[in-house]
Amino acid sequence: MTPSPAGRPSVPGRGRRAFAATWWGQAWVAALEDSTLDAGRLSRGRTYARKGLVGATIVAPGQVKAPVQGSRPRPYRSSVHLPVLTDAQWDTLFDTIAARAGHLAALLDSEMPAELVDDAREAGVPLLPRPTELDPECSCPDWGYPCKHAAALCYAIAATIDADPFVLFALRGRTREEVFTQLRARRTKTQNRAASPAGIPAAAAYARWTAHARQLPELQDLPGPVPLTAALPVAPPPESGLTAADLERLMTDTAARAARLLAGDTTSLHLTVRQDAVRIAAGLPGPQWPRTLIQGTGANPNELTRLTRAWQHGGPTGIVVAEQPSTPAPAAMAAARTALAEALAEMTDGPVLLKAWRNRLTLADRDIQLRLGPDARWYPYLQHDDDWWPAGPPDPDPVAALTTVWRQTGG
Prior knowledge:
Helix content: 40-55%
Number of helices: 15
Number of domains: 3
Shape: globular
């Protein structure tokens, strides 16, 4: 074994040809190959990757996806899912990186320090994928796990991970910009710790306030946010990038959130920055808001639009359903599949392929998908431009959710 750039012996190349040069890229390949005993599909996946049959890859929180050319004229839609880290795990990871100057220096040089991965793992944060975490999905009829198309995608993305270890951070839920923003914030916090009192999470602050608050009068129900009628006393600082209209919108939104808090709705206290940006985009539409939110969060414009639609249909739960596949009770999926099969038999003249994966039921020939949410409701989706988009409000009845999108497609 030869030493890797990060100082750790590299993982031996697997298959007929190694697909990664760095130890962290090879660790990705090892996780793939350790996740299955199907050597035949892995071999065909390597062949597909070497032939360049994997199209442009898209990396998003929790997944990497790409079109993969198979035996049919139209490429298959393949993806590989990886669990994103929780906010608590991210805090631990950021603390781990900030604890050693060498960790940050290596990341700035586009290297993944082995010691960082070891320290994070000991703290309970899996940065590199474990074999049990890689979860393939493909639109092909092959039920292999993974199929050769998803395997090809895994091999093809290894070179990208080689060149940019921040792809692993992105798959776990945070972009390069978000990582460095958090690390800079921790450095500033350390420098100012002696002069600044420590804060507490918003949810904890609210709980402390409600424990000692006096009884308040009943609030009147308002139809929606009440716009400001008075001009702001001063203009926002030029370096803030905000206009007076931006501040007025934010103040109106803050007043509405305060009213909901006083009424006992604490949902907004538990949102991440990304989720809150989606909430603002969904509730305060305007020509400049999407651009401002995209710049402020580093979000992909297409992804922000998709998540905004998910929020409009299902609120915070809609975002969870859009981003995170889950594994519901098999009985719930079986019952829904039976009900849908019976309904489809009446709605169509011929057989309809109904494919099940995790919490998703897909009608591949109709570009329709239903997703079972953690609230036991079915969220309808339609496929546009090789991606799945929320297409309507959720419903406890899968047949009713199907009917919603069936009408949209002219079925």
